[in-house]
């Protein structure tokens, strides 16, 4: 992961690359900020994509981790040993995160604090359920292995429903991508066919207003489509 100074440096470098690309394409000065801003945002987009992929991979691994912990508890091992088993047997990111919890336990960090730190690092609702279940079990007692089995089963059922929702909303997502990309592609095509026609949007006052309204409506449309097809499960 990138810290804030390195991220800012990466954004500055890619922004300069965008300026260089605009200069190489001999674009007018009024358009140069557009590719500069877009390329400057690439590191942020890449970082968000990596984060989303990591969280998704963690969520997919979580049911297996719950079952592995439950089997470990039934075999007579402690919860701490179960964390070590998961860290050893499972791949990152889940194995690495559970391994960190195990190491904190060895250093004397309270279980409640370790689990709270884990849920802060990995914002996952099912993981919060797991942490809450462990903390309550340590305070009030109960069969933690059975609770973990139920959590794992619940997560699997949720993934099954999520898959069905994705299949039903696939056409809407594809339509949204096409509708969002079409104006941009048409803008680029018209610019190369008739640059003077497009430049009116940047030089004329009415053209600037029309461009601002178009961008606003484009963003608004993207948010509406995302709201429609992004069904929470």
Task: Give me a quick take on this structure.
The protein has 233 residues and is mostly helical. The chain has eleven helices and no strands.
Summarize the structure in words.
α6 (111-121) packs antiparallel against α7. The chain has helices spanning 4-24, 33-40, 42-74, 79-89, 94-106, 111-121, 125-140, 144-168, 170-193, 195-203, 205-229. The longest helix is centred in the first third of the chain and has 33 residues, at 42-74. It folds into 3 domains: 1-40; 58-155, Receptor-associated Protein, CATH 1.20.81; 169-233. With 233 residues, the chain is an all-alpha fold. It has 11 helices and no strands.
Q: Spans with pLDDT under 50 lasting ≥5 residues?
A: none
Number of domains: 3
Mean pLDDT score: 89
CATH architecture annotation name of the largest domain: Up-down Bundle
CA-based gyration radius: 25 Å
End-to-end separation? 28 Å
SSE string, helix = H, strand = E?
A: HHHHHHHHHHH
Q: Based on helices, strands and strand pairing, what is the structural class?
A: mainly alpha
Total number of helical segments? 11
How much of the sequence is in beta strands?
A: under 5%
Instruction: Report the top-level CATH class of the largest domain.
Output: Mainly Alpha
Report the sheet with the most strands, covering strand number, pairing sense and barrel closure. Answer: none
Shape: elongated
* Helical proportion, percent range: over 70%
Q: What is the count of β-strands?
A: 0
- CATH topology of the largest domain, anyone? Receptor-associated Protein
């Amino acid at each position: 992961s990138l810290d804030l100074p390195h991220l800012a440096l990466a954004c500055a470098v890619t922004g300069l690359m965008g300026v260089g690309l605009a200069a190489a394409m001999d674009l007018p000065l009024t358009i140069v900020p557009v590719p500069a801003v877009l390329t400057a945002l690439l590191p942020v987009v890449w970082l968000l994509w990596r984060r989303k992929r990591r969280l998704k991979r963690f969520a997919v691994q979580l049911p297996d981790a719950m079952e592995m912990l439950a089997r470990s508890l039934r075999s007579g091992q402690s919860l701490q040993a179960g964390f070590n088993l998961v860290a050893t047997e499972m791949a990152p990111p889940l194995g690495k995160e559970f391994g960190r919890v195990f190491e904190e336990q060895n250093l004397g960090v309270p279980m409640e604090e370790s689990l709270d730190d884990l849920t802060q690092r990995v914002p996952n609702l099912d993981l919060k359920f797991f942490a809450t279940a462990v903390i309550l079990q340590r305070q009030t007692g109960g069969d933690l292995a059975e609770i973990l089995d139920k959590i794992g089963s619940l997560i699997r059922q949720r993934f099954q429903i999520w898959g069905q929702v994705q299949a039903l909303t696939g056409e809407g997502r594809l339509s949204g991508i096409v509708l969002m990309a079409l104006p941009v592609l048409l803008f680029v095509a018209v610019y190369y066919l008739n640059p003077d026609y497009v430049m009116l949007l940047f030089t004329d006052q009415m053209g600037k207003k029309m461009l601002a309204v178009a961008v606003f409506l484009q963003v608004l449309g993207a948010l509406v489509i995302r709201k429609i097809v992004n069904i929470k499960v």
